[in-house]
Amino acid sequence: MEPAIGLAVGRGTGPELAAVFERVLAGISGAYGTTVDLIRSDRTYHSYVSLKTDAEAESVREITQDDADHYTRFCRTLAVAGVPAVFRTAINAQSLYLVRRRLQAAKVDAIPTPEGSLLLVRDQAQGFYTGENTHVPGALVRTMAFSREITEKVITLALRRARQEWPDGRIDEIVMAYKFHLLDGALEEWVSESAARHGVHIGLYQPDTVNRNLIERGPRPRTVIIAGNEWADIMHVVLLDRFGSERQENRCTENVYLHPDANGLIEYQTVHGSADDLAGADKVNPVATIRAAAVIAERHAGCAGAALMVERGLRALGRHGVATPDAGGAHSTTAVVDALLDVLEPESRPVLMADS
């Protein structure tokens, strides 16, 4: 039976990147002598730009809700069918965060650092980003919530992923970055209870304190940062740049759905947005999408070593200056993908380690 993967496409450069994903996933699976069944959503979801262009002000809320409802159903359908993962291009954030609240999402990104790695877990299931809007004359009221249940689920996920990242169990520091002074002491109580239950120390800090500590000494070699999205959405790109020497245009990441209805479905995405200004120009940087296809092929389609194979291919392209204009090259999206597919070659034999 062929492995199955979901695919959801938004406006802007979404269709172009979906085509990149399909080509690269097919190229990787073909190199491994297998095929992957793609289950594509039957709706093209709005980006913020397309929503504002296509909709009158009064219908924005309705379309936002429709997109959220449809994507929620699509994810639940995939999960019920046993599909382990979905690749999604960028869509309107307001719709997306309605889905993330309903399905209780947390974003996970292990960022390599000079001395180790920083595991960033973004709490996307609660807080300001997941609020509901109420319109009253001359004002908009946004209502949000934090809960003990979601806080515990996010902490549990972070610790589970830390054990996967560092199997020997050593974690140098666990930090939570939340504006907890605004929450009447409730979050502090929940975190303390959870830390005791898991037998770990968790430092709960205001975002400015986390920033100060990172500026002064950087992350420890094995650092876990669990963060409210109010801080993490802004700082994710900064952490990539400052400690991981990475750009968001080249980075993919994953969202883990924690609600039972989603049954552990993992959603992969690019860190960059919909780039509507580049739509149809064949200039969007495909590297993050290429990496997402490689990670999905390796983790969910039986293509062991696919991520390393693609990284070797990307390094080969870099040596020859094959890149889109934003990355200092002069090549189209299609040309970059063509070049990558030409150099993909899985390992033919195991690598033997020399005696130390």
Give the key terms:
2 domains, 44% helix, Isopropylmalate Dehydrogenase, alpha/beta, 356 residues, IsoPropMal-DH-like_dom, Isocitrate/isopropylmalate family dehydrogenase, disordered C terminus, 21% strand
Q: Which stretches are low in confidence, meaning pLDDT under 50 for 5 or more residues running?
A: 349-356
Mean pLDDT: 92
CATH fold call of the largest domain: Isopropylmalate Dehydrogenase
Strand order of the largest sheet: 2-1-3-12-11-4-5-10-8-9
CATH architecture of the largest domain: 3-Layer(aba) Sandwich
CATH C-level class of the largest domain: Alpha Beta
Organism: Nonomuraea spiralis
Pfam families: Iso_dh
InterPro entries: IsoPropMal-DH-like_dom
Domain Isopropylmalate dehydrogenase-like: 4-340
Can you tell me about this structure?
By secondary structure, the protein is an alpha/beta fold. It folds into 2 domains: 1-104 and 259-346, 3-Layer(aba) Sandwich (Isopropylmalate Dehydrogenase); 105-251, Isopropylmalate Dehydrogenase (3-Layer(aba) Sandwich), CATH 3.40.718.10. Helices cover 44% and strands 21% of the residues. It is built from 11 helices and 12 strands. The protein has helices at 14-31, 48-54, 57-80, 93-103, 148-165, 186-198, 207-217, 229-244, 287-300, 306-319, 333-343, and strands at 4-10, 37-45, 85-88, 105-113, 116-123, 132-136, 139-143, 173-177, 203-205, 222-228, 252-257, 266-270. The strands form 2 sheets. Strands 2-1-3-12-11-4-5-10-8-9 form a 10-stranded mixed β-sheet, with helices on both faces. Strand 8, helix 6 and strand 9 (203-205) form a beta-alpha-beta unit. Helix 1 (14-31) packs across helix 9, helix 1 (14-31) runs parallel beside helix 11 and helix 3 (57-80) crosses helix 4. The longest helix is centred in the N-terminal third of the chain and has 24 residues, at 57-80. It is globular. Residues 349-356 have low confidence and may be disordered.
